[in-house]
Records
---
Amino acid sequence: MKLLYQGVENQFDATQSLVAMKGTGFSPYIQSVHKDVLKGHDFSRAASGPNYTGALAPEGISLSSDDPKLREECGVVAIHGHPDAARQAYLGLYALQHRGQESAGIATADGQRLANIKGMGLVSEIFTDDVLAKLPGTMAIGHTRYSTTGDSALLNAQPIRVDSTKGLIAIAHNGNLVNLGNIRARLERDGAYFQTTSDSEIIVQLIAHSRAGTLVDAIADSLSQVDGAFSIVMMTRDRIFAARDPRGFRPLSIGRIKNPGAPDTIIFASETCAFDLLRAEYIRDVLPGELVMVTEDGVTSRQYSSGVPQSSCIFEHVYFARPDSRIFGRWVQESRDQMGRQLARESGVPADLVVPVPDSGVTAALGYAEESGIRFRLGLIRNHYVGRTFIEPEQRVRDFGVRLKLNPVRNLLEGKRVILIDDSIIRGTTSRKIVRMVRGAGAKEVHLRISCPPTISPCFYGVDTPSKRDLIAANKSIEEIRRYIEADSLAYLSLDGLLKCCAGPEHTGYCTACYTGNYPTQWVDAEDILPAAVAL
Ligand code: SF4
């Protein structure tokens, strides 16, 4: 494991006049008055470079090449007003570990200084007591990430801290911007020095180069110039900011811990499951196009963008988010239960058992079983202790990766007609291995049911998907896929059915681009949506 430490003095000083939002709910539609006076700019100092120390993790062989799942790229958390903000951020990231397992970071501020530590590995591997002790302050932001391999992985780990003309700013970002090329080139022409290749840094550079008179205006100005998906948390030495893109692709919620006789601790997190571990109460979601600021004086909010139709990622409900989280106005558990029920109504088949592909298929399978009246059984057992690295046997056995993670319960499956429930088929190779495994354990029939429509197009909004040429459903009919995966029958949930299962409060709209190819933004990578060059 490598750690990257950044400890700095802050150069940003600001005075501000704020209208603090009182009471429990911060009405998002109240636009506050923000007035910052920037002092102490230091245009001459270049941003400090990374400082690598230590190489702590044992070497091993990555499992990722056999990983069948689409991967979320990030989870973010922010804490304001807690004496041990770093530890709170650590706990929040721990609860969000499912959103990214390859790197994590925490930045803290104590009103004067801003410290930042990032590393490769799981949150609990990086942030030991000794490391947390190096992160003083009552404010923190944190980030956990799935990233690419290579040296750039640590450099692009977040939070990213930029020493800018507006002072020190740390940023942690979930999502993906889609109009980067022109902006980055323009910024570089204007003298921007990029520390990373991460699109998150572009937001900070836009802030640094903004002509707006106040920091909060500069942030709003910058956010309105970028397109794509971003749920971000930012921190200066004395303030926390949180914002969502105008379409609200990725979730971000606000919670608080009540402190008797003292101001509340305010928390932002990608998912509400983080609040439970922190014993915080959920207040509401950060709205699409909203910028929230937290200072000593309280919480203020403004809509920096409005009138854009919401397009929240529906795949968060299908797979990414934890079932114990509430996102986009509804519980993920409830959505998945409904998906299973709807699937049973749309494509029921006579069978003896409903078996989930663990873990993400479990909730939908319970819904399917209840709706169909067919018994639910855990016929596949997942090894929860398979790490990111393992020692490979000398001679690789067939389907080794899947067999390492899953094992069939032979006495349950033998002689049975089995309905397998999973949340997606990406390339098809893993689904085929699982179907073979269940049949190899003695199942008489194997019927695969998928709790979302066929994935036919890649994602450009923060989910790591293969290009179209590698998505089996983009290149084969459902019957061809059935034959390929060797199932007795195959059915997907309809798009209408999925939308019905995830219906949120009024105005909640969803991105369904990976099922339809209709992207809510203009900017997509044409290379990735070309038809398959070679049939699978
Ligand atoms: Fe989510 Fe799919 Fe849209 Fe990406 S393309 S944001 S995975 S619904």
---
Amino acid sequence: MLYPADMQSPDTVRLSLCTKFGGCASKVGAPDLARVLAGVRFPTDPKLLVGLATSDDAGVYQLTRDLAIVQTVDFFTPIVDDPFDFGRIAATNALSDVYAMGGTPITALNIAAFPIDTLDPEILRRILEGGVAVAVAAGVVILGGHTVKDEEPKYGMAVTGTIHPGKIVTNAGARPGDHLLLTKPVGAGILTTARRRDGIPESDLAPAIAEMTRLNAAARDAMLAHNAHAATDVTGFGLLGHAAEMARASHVGIEIDSISVPLFPRVLELIDLDFVPSGTEGNLTYHSEFTSYADHVVGALRVALSDAMTSGGLLIAAEPHDIRKMYMELEKTHTCAVIGRVTEDGDGTISVL
Ligand code: CO
Ligand code: CO
């Protein structure tokens, strides 16, 4: 593919148009992934504390009695046009899986793919600078990286963090009676798709970019301070998909109060205008297998709750009074909300009320 002249400058490039699938919508879907992984036998190890079995955010491996490492990798195609913003979003998203486990990220390796023969290398430099800015803010040291030639740009990080083996917050610990806190709005996939297709001006994307570049570090601090039972971050499988992973792993049901879920501005309107990424459509179909919706939950809202997001917030389960304390700590600086509860009935299912 040859890129036109205005795509060659880092100042005018519309990076999101350099790719067929945007961002986390480029992620292979949960059903496909399950079919693939079912055929692979991964060896177990007594030091492997969290592995592939529970669809958790990151793996945890024990080094000593009081020290384990948390490891994760995430990379994807551009979802926004500005190279620096794309780098920041990709890095924030990669770090998020460590925070979701309650860990502290310490080092990262860059992973990049770039059409170095047909796009200005300065664009790649700005992507990497975006990643560096986020790493510095998170106190993470970038040790190195690996870049391959590719038709479409891609960027992300492999991240290593530390955690106490007794303080891991998995998605498997939610208990009946828990409340659920969500620490960022949903619908960023809808907004980035609308922007790619020129349905909204760049300025309408600003709230989503601000949230996608916000580290989940403060949310992690709040959940560790107030006895979180379970947590995950909301990304490519959408709010309902990640909630369902938590419900399945914890052998509980989850009720979502649809009216309480914070949405980015204009999301429902843009869904009605059909700015829905393919990843979100796929999620919606898959989620209908384990989700029941109250009649008043309109179609556009069902789509929003399944939106394939990048760098979303943490979804945290804890006792109601602990959730209230987390909320009080975060609400000054975060768009967060108590969005539902954990139930005894309905192992692995979601009810949207
Ligand atoms: Co995750
Ligand atoms: Co991830």
---
Amino acid sequence: MKRVFSGVQPTGNLHIGNYLGALRQFIELQDDHECIYCVVDMHSITLPQDPKELRSHILDIAALYMAIGIDPKKSIMFVQSEVSAHAELGWILTCSSYMGELSRMTQFKDKSKGKENGSIPTGIFTYPTLMAADILAYDADIVPVGNDQKQHIELTRDLAIRINNRFNKNTFVVPEGRFMKEGARVMALDDPTSKMSKSAENEFSRISILDSDTKIKKAIMRATTDSDALVKFDIENKPGISNLLSIYSAFSGTPISDLEKQYDGRGYGDFKKDLVEVTINAISPIREKFEEIRNSHELTKVLDDGRERASVIAEKVLARVKNDFGIGR
Ligand code: TYM
């Protein structure tokens, strides 16, 4: 069975971009793969977080994993900082990476834009080597993620191949990214030229999985479109409606070309009203399950058990890597 690894940062509640780009795949894969899903809390502290809120968000993300359908009997679910192999392997990989390749990461460039070198946190620079460690520590074959992580996966592959070549053996399994056809890059509702994000200031730029029906409706009805009222997919000239069409298609499974026909001559009002319904139908059951799971003892047990199972795998890989590098005795 092929092994799958992925993770989500606990920096806030999940939005439909996370769900459609990544988490939907987690569920698809768990029946016929060995899946390992992580709450990557050490990545979150690359930027300052409020400790109380961070701890609460870690449990929120874990509860959301279960609420969307991750079954702890099938998949391993755990918190990154509780398995120390991630930090250890992260250091080893940092030592095999170059300043040049890390400087080229677009996420790093975005987050450090306009800042002097003296005030750019080192953690956002070395972030991708820790992400590579997450993946490589489990000999993962497949990494389901959104499009924005493509470059990080490429770097992970480069590091694995570089080290394998250096020692002339299979120190690491070289993983592959897995991306959705629709939903791999969900854009902000108020600005369809930038990606939907957990941290954008305008709360109507995103739909969080835990949003009320009223908030979902408001966010969709006020989403930016254009003035020609044609429901047509055209990323270049009509990015707003194109983004909404992708979301509709991803939630309903209806191809975009069919949606264009269905709404031909009907304008944006009708289309948006239906999209509200499709979105609410898809995510309101998750919200209800989340409330139940978030405060249950089961969640603690699942994460304890996940930590044990993940540690066994990662420790074994780490021992192999240390041996190949000649560190330890
Ligand atoms: P994070 O926490 O930002 O996002 C979690 C997942 O959601 C995807 N995603 C999106 N997909 C479509 N449209 C969007 N607007 C959108 N925004 C986010 C992300 O691609 C991701 O799959 N670096 C990762 C976390 C990470 C990780 C890992 C992932 C750390 N270690 C190892 C996989 C394997 C991140 O910040 O994701």
